[in-house]
């Protein structure tokens, strides 16, 4: 592939909008339709909603691309939470109207904008979704695609951009009554295929630049990939002509000026069409030698130094986010949206870093006496301390170089810190859960480099049998470490369930969510334990027994019904969405079927259901966890191609650790 062809990628500008004051009107509505106490319970959400929109309009150009992304995601979540209020506003002829005005992203003069219908939110949601796709396209275009890490981040960014435009095409654009051309169904379809094509092209480039592969292996890997990229660009070339036909050439579109997008996409199509034909001819006459077959599945131990950070970042993409929405709303110090005392909802500002205060009072000081017998089978596993930083850093110095070790030093420091943190006594249940989850994600990043055969002192993980502490297992095998962490996550989530106050509806829902969380981590534990060959508590027979006990415990627990009257802030509908998590695929179907289960007289219930909808949609669209490493609130950040610890969070996390060494149950 020539340099000229590979260097050029397309991105799109953000849509512009006029300022709108949201807080005063919406708070007035909640106070009048519900009550003043209800208005106080959701006031934080309304304030954060208003701040997000103001920052989006007034500060957008001054923010980095990842910060603009964080602001847009936060605003979209708040917008989904308040959506039921707009339904009420639209039916109130006496209410002051809220009108959203948006301009075409490709009109440089920002003329001929469109207004939403009176108090209608559909245009606002569609425009924000468009801007999320646009900002991801800009992140992808801004990546240094001359490096393996830059190509990977660009590829994943374009995939997420394509996902956002897919949602816009299939769902949100259809509900916009009056829209600029960029929000039409045809345009959203075009942008979805455009960024899918660019992601596929970068995936192909990544294979072609795989320096650990021989020429023959590259031919085997990449030959079949030219044809799908060609098909993508064929579709994109057709769709851009459809878009221009719909526009009737009345619009002075930026992509139809000078070096046009039409010309660019036509050149891409011709290039990949020729390459696909060439690859098809080579493949017919080419047979991969048997000696190279093993290389197809070779480990990363053969990679060169340039690929190290890319492989580490790729490692975090392999694990889905299995956490429960409702559990994180109540207990996680790293979730900016919270349910706190008396059912009050808190939406912390998008630019406020964690940790965030939680409502630990929902947990009792002792476990439920009716179900606590399961704890004898699930004590927390103990481990010997380990200087993980020194052993891992030595490996990267010897295997690659001192400069490579410096590039990944931030991740190694975080791994060491989180492991020590996880072993501390006296931590609260919520904080220990957060700590274990963060450590497990970091382990997934480092896993591809095991076994560390090049190191004279690879890390030795020592874990004791949870049931018989006098027995231990000592291995270099990272799967022992991962399986032991997962065992403790299962045990910890089960403990949280047992410490919930089951005499309350909210306690019952939190308990069931914690058990669902335990079941999710257990599914990973069964997979990892087969590779660990550790102590008996990680054996297949023992883990199967644990799984059966958790399943029976879920059946015994009191179940709150969706038609019960909800206490403020703990709706049955939100609980149902929390159970769905990411297990279902059809998000739109879930939105429709769950909507009728909410209590229209409970504003906090309506808000939490809106949050759960937005959370599930964003998890489906933004499932590529590696892009979170670009965020300003990520514990480990990608900065200038290096993995660095986020210094902004260090002092805050230290304060939170000290706070967690308190009275909460262990």
Describe the structure.
It is built from 24 helices and eight strands. The strands form four sheets. It has a two-stranded antiparallel sheet. A two-stranded antiparallel ribbon has the order 3-4. A two-stranded antiparallel sheet has the order 5-6. The chain has helices at residues 3-7, 23-33, 36-58, 65-90, 122-142, 148-170, 185-208, 215-222, 226-247, 261-284, 290-293, 308-315, 325-331, 388-399, 402-407, 409-422, 429-446, 478-499, 505-532, 540-556, 572-580, 587-595, 603-621, 647-660, and strands spanning 101-102, 114-115, 337-339, 345-347, 461-464, 472-475, 636-639, 642-645. The protein has two domains: 16-284, alix/aip1 like domains (Serine Threonine Protein Phosphatase 5, Tetratricopeptide repeat, Alpha Horseshoe), CATH 1.25.40.280; 379-558 and 636-660, Alpha Horseshoe (Serine Threonine Protein Phosphatase 5, Tetratricopeptide repeat). It comes from Arachis hypogaea (Peanut). One of its GO terms (biological process) is negative regulation of stress fiber assembly.
Summarize the structure.
With 666 residues, the protein is mainly α. It folds into two domains: 16-284, Serine Threonine Protein Phosphatase 5, Tetratricopeptide repeat (Alpha Horseshoe); 379-558 and 636-660, alix/aip1 like domains (Serine Threonine Protein Phosphatase 5, Tetratricopeptide repeat, Alpha Horseshoe). Helices cover 56% and strands 4% of the residues.
Oligomeric description of these chains:
single chain
Number of strands: 8
The named CATH superfamily of the largest domain: alix/aip1 like domains
CATH arch. level architecture of the largest domain: Alpha Horseshoe
Main-sheet strand order equals 1-2
Number of helical segments with 4 or more residues:
24
Mean pLDDT: 81
* Major sheet characteristics: 2 strands, antiparallel
Please give the CATH class of the largest domain: Mainly Alpha
Output the radius of gyration. 26 Å
User: What's the N-to-C terminus distance?
Assistant: 58 Å
Within the CATH hierarchy, at the fold level, what is the topology of the largest domain?
A: Serine Threonine Protein Phosphatase 5, Tetratricopeptide repeat
Approximate strand percentage: under 5%
Q: Portion of residues in helices?
A: 55-70%
Instruction: Pick out the low-confidence regions.
Output: 1-5, 290-299, 561-597, 659-666
Work out the count of structural domains: 2
């Amino acid at each position: 592939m020539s340099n000229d062809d590979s260097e050029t990628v397309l991105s799109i500008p953000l849509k512009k909008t006029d300022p709108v004051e949201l807080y005063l009107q919406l708070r007035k509505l909640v106070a009048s339709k519900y009550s003043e106490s209800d208005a106080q319970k959701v006031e934080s959400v309304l304030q954060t909603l208003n701040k997000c929109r103001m920052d989006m309009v007034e500060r957008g150009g001054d923010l980095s691309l990842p910060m603009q992304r964080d602001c847009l995601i936060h605003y979209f979540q708040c917008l989904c939470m308040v959506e039921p209020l707009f339904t009420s506003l639209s039916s109130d002829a006496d209410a002051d109207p809220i009108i959203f005005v948006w301009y075409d992203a490709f009109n440089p003069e920002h003329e001929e904008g469109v207004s939403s219908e009176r108090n209608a939110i559909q245009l606002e949601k569609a425009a924000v979704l468009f801007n999320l796709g646009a900002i991801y396209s800009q992140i992808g275009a801004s990546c240094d695609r001359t490096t393996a890490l830059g190509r990977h981040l660009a590829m994943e960014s374009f995939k997420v951009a394509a996902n956002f435009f897919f949602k816009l095409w299939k769902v949100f654009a259809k509900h916009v009554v009056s829209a600029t051309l960029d929000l039409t169904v045809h345009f959203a379809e075009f942008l979805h295929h455009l960024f899918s094509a660019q992601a596929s092209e970068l995936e192909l480039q990544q294979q072609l630049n795989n320096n650990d592969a021989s020429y023959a292996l590259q031919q085997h890997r990449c030959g079949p990939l030219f044809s799908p990229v060609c098909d993508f660009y064929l579709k994109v070339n057709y769709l851009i002509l459809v878009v221009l036909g719909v526009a009737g050439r009345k619009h002075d579109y930026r992509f139809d000026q000078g070096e046009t997008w039409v010309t660019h996409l036509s050149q891409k199509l011709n290039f990949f069409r020729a390459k696909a034909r060439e690859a098809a001819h080579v493949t017919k006459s080419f047979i991969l030698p048997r000696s190279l077959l093993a290389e197809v599945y070779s480990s990363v131990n053969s990679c060169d130094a340039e690929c190290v950070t890319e492989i580490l970042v790729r490692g975090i993409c392999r694990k889905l986010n299995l956490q429960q929405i409702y559990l994180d709303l109540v207990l996680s110090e790293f979730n900016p949206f919270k349910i706190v005392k008396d059912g009050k909802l808190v939406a912390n500002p998008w630019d406020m870093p964690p940790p965030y205060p939680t409502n630990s009072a929902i947990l009792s000081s002792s476990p439920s006496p009716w179900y606590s017998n399961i704890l004898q089978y699930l004590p927390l596993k103990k481990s010997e301390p380990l200087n993980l930083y020194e052993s891992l850093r030595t490996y990267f110095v010897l295997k690659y170089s001192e400069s490579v070790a410096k590039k990944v030093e931030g991740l190694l420091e975080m791994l060491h810190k989180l492991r020590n943190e996880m072993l501390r006594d006296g931590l609260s249940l919520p904080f220990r859960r957060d700590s274990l989850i963060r450590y497990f994600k970091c382990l997934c990043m480092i896993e591809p480099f095991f076994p560390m055969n090049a190191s004279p002192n690879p890390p030795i993980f020592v874990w004791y049998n949870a049931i018989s502490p006098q027995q231990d297992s000592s291995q270099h095998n990272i799967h022992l470490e991962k399986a032991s962490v997962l065992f403790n996550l299962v045990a910890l989530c089960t403990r949280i369930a047992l410490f919930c106050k089951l005499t309350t509806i909210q306690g019952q829902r939190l308990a069931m969510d914690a058990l669902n969380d335990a079941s999710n981590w257990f599914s990973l534990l069964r997979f990892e334990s087969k590779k660990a060959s550790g102590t008996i508590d990680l054996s297949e027979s023992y883990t199967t027994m644990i799984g059966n006990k958790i399943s029976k415990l879920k059946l015994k627990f009191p179940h709150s019904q969706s038609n019960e009257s909800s206490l403020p802030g703990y709706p049955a509908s939100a609980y149902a969405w929390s159970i769905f998590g990411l297990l279902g695929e059809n998000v739109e179907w879930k939105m429709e079927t769950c909507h009728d289960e909410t209590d229209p007289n409970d504003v906090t219930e309506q808000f939490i259901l809106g949050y759960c909808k937005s959370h599930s949609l964003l998890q489906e669209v933004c499932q590529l966890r590696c892009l979170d490493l670009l965020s300003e609130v990520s514990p480990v950040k990608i900065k200038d191609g290096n993995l660095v610890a986020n210094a902004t969070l260090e002092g805050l996390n230290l304060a939170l650790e000290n706070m967690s060494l308190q009275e909460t149950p262990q």
